[in-house]
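Aim 2, interim progress. The first record below pairs a target sequence with its structure tokens.
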Amino acid sequence: MEFDWAGSTAFVIDRDTGEKLKACIFVPTLPCSQLSYAEATTSMNLPSWITVHHQ
């Protein structure tokens, strides 16, 4: 499996507050099948890295 944070930071809108929030996109890919998964987090810190690897 290959994985990393992808490209530039994206943004999402909080539905409750209308606030524009930073979204870092994490993308793991299985190289032989080319299957990918994407998940947004609010940062690229260690707790986020651990969270996206344990779901």
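The second target in this work package is listed in the same format:
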Amino acid sequence: MSADKSEKPVVELSYEEAMTNLNAILRELESEEGDLDLLAAHVKRASELVRHCRSKIQNTEMEVEKVLKDLPEHTDGE
């Protein structure tokens, strides 16, 4: 994975795309073949991806809570 301008902006990525991107960065950082000059760019993008994924998770949790709150309560008599 190279840190070039053709990468899709983080805010445009789905959760799955962001996780795939993050895993690719992690694999490259763990390999001994990674380009040391790109390390800062990889760490910066990884940080942005983690924030993006956390935000998506939090938003999904809020949406699920809202849906559950709006559901009628189940009673044993029904």
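The chain has a mean pLDDT of 86. This observation will shape the mutagenesis plan for the next reporting period.
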